[in-house]
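Bumping my old thread because nobody answered last time. Still need a sequence for this structure:
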């Protein structure tokens, strides 16, 4: 893996996070490069790791084994058509982390023969605690799949999906999911403050509680429902709170919100692709 040459088109926060994760796991900075039209973004990236940078996308991707497309969906077509000549006839795999751009569009813009992988990451990748769903076309070989998984695992959990449409569900669960928890945490902290705690204490207790619960869910090997039951003593305070949530239709509210997210993900694919 250390010999794999990885080029990033786009030098924003997600690219910087992945580069930082790769370097922390031992990938040589000499085998990493990035391009971006903003000299300021490239300068910030060089503070993360001493990688080669350029404002010329086409020059940056030449000779790369993996090209990570880390640009906004609105400029993806322009970027892909610009770098297509540098990828023609080679065995470079393109990995897109842009939301909403379907494989068919990426293949059309990049030209025939370029293997394409789509990834739906999320913002906790900025802390190395991300969750990414990946989908690969049939043109992607096992070695290229392994490289993509190792790259994204540098910033968190990686899961493959079998169908491209499953990425809409990934978006509804983990891609947009952090915002759901932030909203719930906002409500908890605000109510803690209303109940008499100072803002800093209410926020700190809420954040640590969320962190601890997430670690228990991820590391205990116990089903979520069982973890909940273990906190709910019969007739106790937690049980009363859970009954209130359910009486107000929490599960149905979550289902409607995630369905709305998935629908918008599909709309974006139609609009941007």
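Sorry it took so long. Here it is:
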């Amino acid at each position: 893996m250390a010999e794999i040459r990885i080029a990033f088109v786009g030098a924003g926060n997600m690219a910087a996070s992945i580069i930082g994760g790769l370097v922390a796991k031992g990938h040589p900075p000499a085998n990493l490069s990035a391009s971006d039209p903003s000299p300021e973004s490239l300068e910030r990236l060089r503070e993360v790791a001493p990688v080669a940078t350029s404002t010329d996308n086409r020059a940056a991707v030449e000779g790369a084994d993996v090209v990570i497309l880390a640009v906004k969906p609105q400029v993806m077509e322009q970027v892909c058509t610009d770098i297509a000549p540098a990828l023609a006839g080679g065995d470079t795999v393109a990995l897109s982390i842009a939301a909403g751009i379907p494989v068919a569009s990426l293949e059309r813009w990049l030209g025939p023969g370029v293997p394409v992988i789509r990834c739906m990451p999320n913002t906790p990748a900025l802390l190395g605690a991300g969750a990414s769903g990946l989908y690969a076309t049939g043109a992607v070989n096992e070695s290229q799949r392994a490289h993509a998984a190792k790259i994204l695992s540098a910033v968190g959990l990686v899961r493959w999906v079998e169908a491209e449409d499953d990425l809409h569900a990934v978006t509804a669960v983990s891609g947009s999911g952090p915002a759901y928890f932030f909203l719930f945490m906002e409500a908890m902290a605000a109510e803690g403050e209303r109940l008499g705690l100072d803002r800093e204490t209410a926020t700190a207790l809420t954040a640590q509680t969320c962190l601890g619960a997430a670690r228990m869910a991820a590391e205990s090997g116990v089903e979520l429902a069982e973890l909940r039951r273990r906190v709910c003593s019969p007739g106790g305070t937690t049980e009363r709170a859970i009954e209130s949530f359910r009486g107000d239709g929490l599960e149905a509210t979550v289902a409607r919100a995630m369905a709305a997210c998935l629908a918008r993900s599909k709309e974006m694919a139609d609009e941007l692709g």
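The chain has two domains: 6-167, 175-269. Let me know if any region looks off to you.
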